[in-house]
Design brief:
The protein has 2 domains: about 5-160 and about 355-400, Rossmann fold, CATH 3.40.50; about 170-355, 3-Layer(aba) Sandwich (Rossmann fold). Helix content is about 40%, strand content about 15%. It has 17 helices and 13 strands. The longest helix has 20 residues, at about 375-395. It is globular, with a radius of gyration of 22 Å. This is Glycosyltransferase involved in cell wall bisynthesis.
């Protein structure tokens, strides 16, 4: 049977195993298991609670990346990652060089077909470092960038990485009773976003736009707490309506279930797509031409622009305006009945273009292309040297006089 092995990091100081790409990988693995023998490994100091729900997942405890102990542990994985000679295996690293180089150390240079999955975050500052390496990406902005650097290696786009969150009444009653118990006619707003430094800019745009929102909706923000300073800054925003921030573990765990309880959703990346999957009107934070924070609805006219930028605040307002007049959250709150059809419109877009099923064929084709491609050992050696040099530089920086 064809085998695909995913390999990614999970450190408490980086992402704690709960970022969006862990949830995406969980969905991808589930859809691929009908065609492949799927294995998932994480290395680091914390297992991923998202991936622990899968039988094919295993966490390998390691220390700092650039240390003999970590490399020795990874090298000891080699036997477990070795398969019979006639089995076709593709090793796929997920993230950036922090994940790709360790798998090379584990397997050995040139030991088998290796590819890389670039998650939905910002563009890599040194994208050329991945030249000559088969790549799978989630959004078109990355696709065009990597294609411009190297169009000869296998390169695929698979935006579908989301399934509709399941309905769980017990969870809803426990986690979001204020949304469930909202008064008749009172709009329910929900935000799901990690409270972390890397999300601080996006959250600032979200909350800045909400400060200008009038009316009497009830609002909830659910997010894994990774930075108390960011949480403190969010709490300083003064909103004209009832708002709460929930960070308890039993609430943030698989928080996408809470989307069932809202009317309007505010979020980024795959969370916005999960809201669309459930027929909720999704809003993405964007700054307008003057730099003012706005929340723009995803519509039939502009969804491709948002998808190009992975449904994030990196989306330029002028590109959205080129598709038609943007619809802001204050417009929808002011006349919800008139705009209610946008929920069904978003669900149709999801089913046609963004569901996990729409990307299954892209993954199958990518597997065939990547297993037939051999990465240059010289390029891999260069990537290893660069990674080690950068990691040592980061470790030595704090003691620099």
């Amino acid at each position: 049977m064809k085998t695909i092995v995913f390999f990614l990091s999970s450190y408490s100081t980086i992402n704690t195993g709960v970022g969006g790409h862990y949830r995406s990988l969980k969905e991808i693995a589930s859809i691929l298991q009908s065609d492949f023998d799927v294995r998932i490994f994480t290395f680091g100091n914390v297992p991923s609670p998202i991936l622990q729900q899968l039988d094919c997942y295993r966490h390998v405890e390691t220390g700092p990346l650039v240390s003999p102990g970590t490399w020795r542990t990874l090298r000891n994985l080699r036997k477990e990652l070795s398969f019979e000679p006639d089995r076709e295996v593709l090793y796929v690293t997920v993230g950036d060089l922090i994940c790709y180089v360790p798998i090379l150390l584990c397997l050995g240079l040139g030991s088998g077909p290796v590819a890389h999955l670039k998650p939905g975050g910002p563009v890599f500052p040194r994208s050329y470092m991945f030249n000559g390496l088969p790549l799978m990406v989630f959004h078109r902005q990355d696709y065009r960038l990597f294609e411009a650097h190297d169009s000869k290696r296998p390169l695929a786009l698979a935006p579908g990485r989301v399934s509709p969150p399941p309905y769980d009444r017990e969870y809803l009653n426990h986690a979001v009773p204020r949304l469930i118990g909202a008064q008749e006619g009172q709009l329910r707003l929900l935000t799901i976003c990690r409270i972390a430094e890397e999300k601080a800019t996006s959250l600032s745009v979200m909350y800045g736009a909400l400060e200008n929102l009038e009316g009497s909706p009830v609002s909830t923000h659910i997010g894994v707490l990774q930075s108390r300073s960011v949480l403190h800054r969010l709490e300083q925003h003064r909103l004209a309506f009832s708002h709460e921030i929930l960070v308890d573990d039993d609430v943030v765990d698989t928080a996408a279930r809470a989307i069932h309880a809202c009317d309007l959703f505010i979020g980024l990346g795959r969370s916005a797509m999960e809201a669309m999957a459930l027929g909720k009107i999704a809003f993405v934070p964007v700054r307008d031409r003057e730099g003012a924070p706005r929340l723009v609805a995803v519509t039939r006219q502009n969804w491709r622009i948002f998808q190009h930028h992975n449904f994030t605040d990196r989306t330029p307002m002028d590109e959205l305006e080129a598709t038609g007049e943007p619809l802001f959250i204050e417009d929808v709150v002011g006349d919800f009945d008139h705009h209610q059809h946008l929920g069904q419109e978003g669900q149709d877009i999801f089913r046609e273009h963004l569901s996990i099923e729409t990307s299954a064929s892209a993954w199958r084709q990518f597997y065939d292309d990547a297993t037939g491609f051999r990465v240059s050992r010289l390029r891999d050696l260069f990537r290893v040297c660069y990674f080690v040099a950068m990691a040592l530089k980061r470790q030595l920086k704090p003691i620099k006089r």
